Amino acid sequence: MVGVTAGARSSISPYAVFDRASWRALAEGTRLPLDEEELRGLASLGDRIDLDEVATVYLPLAELLGLHVTASRRLWAAQSEFLGNTTAKVPFVIAVAGSVAVGKSTTARLLQTLLAASAGSPRVDLVTTDGFLHPNAVLEARGLLGRKGFPESYDRRALARFLADVKSGREEVFAPVYDHQSYDVVPDVRQAVDRPDILVLEGLNVLQAGRRADGTAPEVFLSDFFDFSVYVDAAEADIQSWYVERFQALRRTAFQDATAYFHRFAGLTDDEARATALDIWASVNGPNLRSNIAPTRSRARLVLQKAADHSVRRVLLRKL
After folding, report:
1. Which helix H or strand E contains 317, and what residues bound it?
2. CATH number (domain holding residue 305)
3. pLDDT tens per residue across span 159-181
4. Which member of 80, 103, 291, 292 has the lowest number of beta carbons within 10 Å of its beta carbon?
């Protein structure tokens, strides 16, 4: 298979594995529809990325996703003709998963931008699952504020209903909105999703199977509503380092705002900030990654494996 690395040929794997050169070649000649200034507006704090990385990794991914969207539309048309009905076409849903600080938000925003600029100019909406976190008051009452981001901190029923409504073709489905500055869901503010061509859903645990509080499996999994899924992967030591760097950058910027939830960290010294970030990682983000997020990697259709410098070193694509 063209583009598969030598290591992949020596063993049976459900994935085709591409190095950077072979993956970039898949979109050779395709124009990059954004410039450096636009890219800066899409990249998350601390996520080091440039236009060359976009051309190498994310442009071929957008091209691949475009093929899947087109194939889905053709299948819908053929099925409608076969059944003799005019059932409305529903959005193509792409899930983007991965750890805190791994760069999944940048990935999701890049995909939204690149897909919207593709042939036919499809309408692409982006929703993050942060809005489906229970409000802080609810988490505090349940003793879960210190486990924010863990599966039990989300209103998973509401998220499943949202996706079910989207994939049913309902008009104006609403998603709650989260504010990172206040570290809470914004009361009475909702994002309208009105039958876009493509919906990108980004979140920590979107690929998780999960279990209810009583230990039983849910009747419906979020992945039942996904047409394609991407997992942004990296070594835990690298993600931890990126998280610490981001925490220190936020201490110098967003945390300086007196209204910010984490304003209490603004006055920390560099050493104190590093120690605090490492403690948060050790007690919250690290355990969540190991227990809940990383185990879902194998459920993704495509895995972006990052190196310590944030660049994607190889791409794993599940075979059809």
Report:
1. strand 312-318
2. 3.40.50.300
3. 999 999 999 999 999 999 999 99
4. 291
Distance CA(145)–CA(133), nearest Å, equals 11
What range does the domain containing 43 cover? 6-318
Q: Contact at 8 Å (CB) between 178 and 316?
A: no
Taking the model in full, what pTM does it have?
A: 0.93
- Cβ pair 202, 104 in contact under 8 A: yes
**In this structure, what token pair is assigned to residue 261?**
């939830």
Which of 207, 177, 179, 187 lies closest to 93, judged by CA? 207
Specify the number of domains making up the chain: 1
Instruction: Tell me the residue ranges of DSSP E strands in 74-227.
Output: 92-98, 124-128, 173-179, 184-193, 198-202
Q: SS3 for 92? A: strand
1 inside domain: no
Structure tokens at 243: 């998280």
pLDDT value, residue 6: 41
- What is the per-residue pLDDT for 191? 98
* 304 Ramachandran zone, left/alpha/beta (phi>0; psi -120 to 50): beta
Cα gap 12→206, rounded to integer Å: 27
Residue 251 phi, psi (nearest 5): -60, -35
Q: Do you know the residue count of the chain?
A: 320
CA 230/CA 241 separation, integer angstroms: 22
Contact between 199 and 93 under an 8 Å Cβ cutoff? The reply is: yes
